[in-house]
Structures are given as structure tokens and as C-alpha cells.
Amino acid sequence: MESLALKAQSVLRLFSLEGKVALVTGGGKGLGEAMAYALAGAGAHVAVAGKTFANVERVAREISAMGRHSLAIEVEVRDKQQVEKMVAQVMEEFGRLDILINNAGFADVKPITEFPLELWEYIMDVNAKGTFLCSQEAAKVMLKQKKGKIINISSLQGSVGRPKDPAYAASKAAVNLMTMSMACEWGKEGICVNAIAPTWCWTDLTAPHLQKEKFYQALQKRIPQGRAGNREDLFGIVVFLASDASDFINGAIIPVDGGAIACDGFPEVEDSGE
Fold first, then answer.
1. Cα within 13 Å of Cα(255), Cβ side
2. Out of 3.40.710.10, 3.40.50.300, 3.40.50.720, 3.40.190.10, which CATH number does the structure's domain 16-256 have?
3. Whole-angstrom Cα distance, residue 60 to residue 127?
4. What is the chain's mean pLDDT, rounded?
5. 99-102 and 70-74: which strand pairing?
6. Where do the structural domains in the chain lie, given as residue ranges?
7. pLDDT digits (tens, 9 = 90+) for 111-165
8. Which sequence positions are flagged as catalytic?
9. How far apart, in Å, are the Cα atoms of 213 and each of 68, 208, 217?
10. What DSSP character marks residue 233?
11. pTM of this structure
């Protein structure tokens, strides 16, 4: 029997994604773009999907320049037929699908009594229904392969509420429980389903809020590490969850938040002394 010490000599190979095929939804910008590059950097070929073809095509070109095979796909994740076509395109191009990153999402806030039903439905459809449809279709492939990694992008807001947010927080809570249910059902078939729950990260969409001094100072106080996240803060966790190194992690909701979820938000109590 091979000793643990001998096995450990090749431990870094567990994190390699060489030869794997990944599909990233919402991959044309923001966190999705960052994760697509990270997967390619670890060796994966990456299909980049999103609503705006020009964006996903640009990211696919960058990945190709990294020496990986890439494919740009225009998709509306709320539409079952388009999702089915997306996965079919991946299979036609690559012949397999090892990793799905469900990143497509949308957020908006308004006073709850004035929150339009159409907006609530749209947010729930993109974030929850889209995650369901993409996972369902990808799992059909992965079940045949007896192996796969599905990584859902949740949020800190999936565990805590906030004012003016009856939809985004609820949709991410739904993503969390879908993650757990999928893990329960598909774990025995070799599919691991986990979620990443970031706090506020710097992207083109969040920058207008984070650049407001009062808001950012309040955020800093809430996060033990004293800053908002950067897109590259997701590099390590997404590669880990996509790799063989995480084969016994299933149904987890992993915060990437500088410790924010670990704190209750109350101010530090002064030492009363002797």
C-alpha cells in the first residue's frame, strides 16, 4: 500500500485542472470573468457564457491567448431551451463537461413596500431559476460521466438580511438550499455541489457604491480584514472547488468575506481594566 508520505509528494497535482472543461455563466464581466481566467490559469478549457456576446467573446479571446481552448456562448439562463442549447454547444465543442460555475446574477434594492413585482420576479428568475436550470442540464452530462463539480455563486446576503432587499437576499438563500439538496442527491454519483458566498467585491457594478466614502467606511467596520473583496480573491477558492483536491467537500456554502459572516457587527467593547 502506498504510504501517505509518498502520496503527499504529488499533492499539488490535486489542484490541477489540466484537461478539464469548465462552463462559466455570467462570465463576460465581474466575478465571472475573474473565475473564468482562474480556471484557465489552472489548466482548464473554458466555455464563457453570458447575455452580452461581445463581453463573453472578449473573455474567450483572453483565455485563448493564455493557451487554453475557449468558446463564447450567448445565453439567457432564465430560458430552458437556451440553457439546453448552451450545454449542447459545450458538448459538441469539447466532448465533456467537468465544471459548471453558476455565476449569472442580478441585484437591485428598493423600499420593500414599493418593490415592483416584475423586478422581484426577474431577480428570482435569474438568480434562482437560472441556477436550477443550468445545474439540471449540466448534471445530465455529469451523471453519465460519474464525475463533476458544480459551483454556485451565492452571497453573504444569502445568510443575512438587509433593508430594501426582498429579492436578492431571498434568491441567494434559495441558491444555498438548492446547493445542499443537489449535493444530497448527486454526491453518490460523483458530483460535488458547493457554493461560494462573497461579500462586496470591487467590480464595475459595485464600484459606484464602494466609492462612496460613508458606505465604504461602514463596510470596513463590518469586515474584520478591513476592506472589500477584490475579484482575484476568488481565484483560489474556485480552483480548489473545481479540482480533485475538494472531492470530499459537498454541500458547503463557503464565505469569501474577510470574516464578515463570523462577526455580529457590534462595536468592540472597551476593556474595563482591573
1. 15
2. 3.40.50.720
3. 23
4. 96
5. unpaired
6. 16-256
7. 999 999 999 999 999 999 999 999 999 999 999 999 999 999 999 999 999 999 9
8. 168
9. 40, 11, 6
10. G
11. 0.95
